[in-house]
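WP5 quarterly update. Target: STE20-related kinase adapter protein alpha. Source organism: Labrus bergylta. Length: 386 aa.
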Amino acid sequence: MGSFLPDSGSYEVLTIIGRGLDDLLAVNLARYRPTGEHVAIRRIDMESCTNDMVTYLQSELQVSKLFHHSSILPYKSVFIAENELWVITPFMAYGSARDLICTHFTDGMAELTIAYILLGMLKALEYIHHMGYVHRSVKASHVLISADGQVCMSGLRSIFSLIRHGQRARVVHDFPQYSVKVLPWLSPEVLQQLLLFLSFSELHGYDSRSDIYSLGITACELANGHVPFKDMPATQMLLEKLNGTVPCLLDTTTIPPEELSLKPSRSGADSGICEGPGAGGVRQSNGEASTSSSGHPYNRTFSPHFHAFVELCLQRDPEKRPSASTLVGHPFFKQIKRRPSEALPELLRPVTPITSYETSQMQASPSGLASLESGLSHLEVDDWDF
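Structure tokens (predicted):
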């Protein structure tokens, strides 16, 4: 897929699949007329944007021009159509990893599936960090998967450059703007910037290793089916993280045996915080749910390598967290034997990419568009940061 023409007439807008920015932004599925390819169009009402929003969007678009990597969602064209800013991106037919959790994998994904997704995220972060930026919005809803299994990071709006006056700063102290929705994923050192006006103690700032902590939270999100700290008040979340409370993967080694013997529930899992390792648990399976008669959703065992990977990412001391480049070589990823394009569509079954049935339906029946809208209805696209 190459760059697309900066002309609104070249796109057949099909349907709205999401909104955002206080309804100033609409995301449309569209067809690019010259080739028939499906794309997503982010349309932003510029006349209604505040000056701060315009500056915010300009910064994002400037960064997008610098980034060229297969694991980062590309902006294929950016132009003004009447009073709207149009940003053209590929349409990611599986939606986001968060969409998949909400609709099909409510108790979490299988370990091998997660390994493919996390490796794609790490390759994106390795590139972003090499370019001198901190992503600051790493989470499952900012991981998009294409029909052919390509994993792409999005969410560049909060990205921040460490380069100042031609030099790479050691740390930064800036707190990301418009970050309320991302608080559960942020590292302790980033959240600590909130204390700037509450404390006279020295703030040490943060660097790219804060993204590694967010990656660890995302790993728990993918494995457990929900986000650690999600249901906590912001103040409690901040204190828990600063005090070193560490989330973990929920399985037979981290949930007490007496809880696993209860009827299926999410008791003890609402906060995503483990009370401690289960007695006598041996990690040996690949994260698949067992067939125990208890039927507990977390009656499964993830591999030791997966647990070790998450523990490394979630170190309270950022100095102890490995870089993205180092983590790409972690033993956790040795289980990957095939290309994502071969493996992910198979691993994601019974989910099918939306475009696999949309084209024939739309051509064969006037009700095709309604069927498409129905198929898209489960996607949390207002949280996709295209």
